[in-house]
Amino acid sequence: MRVMSYREAVIEALREEMTRDGNVFLMGEDVGRMGGVFQATAGLWETFGPSRVFDTPISEVAIVGAALGAALVGLRPVAEIMFVDFTGVAMDQIANQVAKFHFMTGGQAIVPLVIRTQGGVGFGDAAQHSQSLEAWHTHIPGLKVVMPSTPSDAKGLLKTSIRDDNPIIFIEHKLLYQTEGPIPEGDYLVPIGKADIKKEGKDVTIITWSKMVLDSLEAASLLEEEGIHAEVVDLRTLNPLDLDTIIFSVKKTGRAVIVHEACKTGGFGAEIAALIVEKAFDYLDAPIQRIAGIDTPIPYAAPLYRAVIPNPDKIAQAVRGLL
Amino acid sequence: MRVMSYREAVIEALREEMTRDGNVFLMGEDVGRMGGVFQATAGLWETFGPSRVFDTPISEVAIVGAALGAALVGLRPVAEIMFVDFTGVAMDQIANQVAKFHFMTGGQAIVPLVIRTQGGVGFGDAAQHSQSLEAWHTHIPGLKVVMPSTPSDAKGLLKTSIRDDNPIIFIEHKLLYQTEGPIPEGDYLVPIGKADIKKEGKDVTIITWSKMVLDSLEAASLLEEEGIHAEVVDLRTLNPLDLDTIIFSVKKTGRAVIVHEACKTGGFGAEIAALIVEKAFDYLDAPIQRIAGIDTPIPYAAPLYRAVIPNPDKIAQAVRGLL
Amino acid sequence: MSVTDYLSWGGSMQVRKQEKIDLYRLMVRIRAFEEQSFISFNQGLTYGVLHLYIGEEAIAAGCMYDLRKEDYITSTHRGHGHLIAKGADMGRMFAELLGKETGYCRGRGGSMHIADMTIGILGANGIVGAGVPISVGAAFALRYKGLDHVVLCFFGDATINTGAFHEAVNLASTWKLPVVFVCENNLYGISVSIKNACALRSLADRSAGYAIPGVCVDGNDVLAVRKACIEATARARKGEGPTLLECQTYRWGGHFTADDGKYRPDEEVRHWKEERDPIGNLARDMLGSGEIDQQEIDVIHREVKEEVEKAFRYAQESNPADVDGMLRGVYYESPTRTRNSKGEDLP
Amino acid sequence: MSVTDYLSWGGSMQVRKQEKIDLYRLMVRIRAFEEQSFISFNQGLTYGVLHLYIGEEAIAAGCMYDLRKEDYITSTHRGHGHLIAKGADMGRMFAELLGKETGYCRGRGGSMHIADMTIGILGANGIVGAGVPISVGAAFALRYKGLDHVVLCFFGDATINTGAFHEAVNLASTWKLPVVFVCENNLYGISVSIKNACALRSLADRSAGYAIPGVCVDGNDVLAVRKACIEATARARKGEGPTLLECQTYRWGGHFTADDGKYRPDEEVRHWKEERDPIGNLARDMLGSGEIDQQEIDVIHREVKEEVEKAFRYAQESNPADVDGMLRGVYYESPTRTRNSKGEDLP
Ligand SMILES: Cc1ncc(C[n+]2csc(CCOP(=O)(O)OP(=O)(O)O)c2C)c(N)n1
Ligand SMILES: Cc1ncc(C[n+]2csc(CCOP(=O)(O)OP(=O)(O)O)c2C)c(N)n1
Ligand SMILES: [Mg+2]
Ligand SMILES: [Mg+2]
Question: Nearest CA to CA, how far is B91 from chain A (Å)?
Answer without folding.
Answer: 5
